[in-house]
Amino acid sequence: MKHEPEIEAWSRYWAANRLDSCISGQGIEDEADINALWASFVQDTPDNSRLIDLAAGNGAVSIRLLTQAQAHGKTLAVDAVDQAIIDPARHLKNHSAIAAQIMFHAETDISALPFKEATFDGAVSQFGFEYAPQKAAAKEMLRILKPGAHFQLLIHHANSALVAPNVQKITYITGLLAKGGPVEAAHTYLTSPPDKQAAALEALEQIGQQTLAAYSAQPPAIIQEIFGAISQLVQRSDLRFSVRAKAAVDMEGRLRAEAERMRQLAAAALDADQIRSLGDRLSQAGATELAITELYIGTDKALLGWLVCGKK
Ligand SMILES: C[S@@+](CC[C@H](N)C(=O)[O-])C[C@H]1O[C@@H](n2cnc3c(N)ncnc32)[C@H](O)[C@@H]1O
Predict the structure, then answer these.
(1) Percent of the chain at pLDDT above 70?
(2) Range of the domain at 256
(3) 20 lines ligand 1 (CB under 6 A)
């Protein structure tokens, strides 16, 4: 498979010991509601079923399914598919034991699944299904489900509390990476020969001050984070040239990947018309008992996404 930037961005993300992409660290206080969502799916799943987690990342949902099944004395087999290069048993520090019980399929597109018809008793997806071409993904999911099998998809909602702040991040990252911006200035400083370092540092400090002056209150978290990383690197004059140069390139790469993931999130989030059209595609592919609702979670009832449930 070709590793285009959109796949590369996720591969990089999952290699960094992350369990969730859109739940942890996103201001979602109440994970209990998310656990309950997947617990109820397990409850409705017969013992000894085989389930598939579509666009699974490092298996956040698969892990929740298995944890719930074990708590209720059920045996489930879970396959988890993602088009990114994933290796959770290696990359997930705190969940490697349970990740080892999941059959992960890396570099696998959910719109062209390598499974026979009627293989699975259920399919799930958490902020993943909507990233794939919808018609093909719907057709594939219904093809690999057994008659009577059920599915539950949590889909990005265009108005959800998750989408706007993440999309806003693209603007901040674009500013950080702009020509003549802070990241370029940091790169120049970190790769300057000794006789040019003082001037490069002065330029970097000036750009830093200009950037911060644009914010009357606290600058956004991503800007604080990058400025913190730059300042740490500046202080490490003991580092070898090659290490400093690599750190500068890594910082740029990480920011580009982050912006790419946010662009994908913005494109994947569906409004009311788009979710209706996804519902139509699922029905055309053979889904029945389709129920599409808005999912609100936590004590403040924040809109998390669309919940799409149905059967084959
Ligand atoms: C927002 S993440 C969600 C991951 C996981 N379900 C979770 O909740 O943490 C979206 C995932 O969709 C994957 N993805 C995007 N398009 C895909 C496709 N066509 N086939 C398989 N995976 C895809 C990405 O690689 C990424 O891991």
Answers:
(1) 96
(2) 163-265
(3) yes
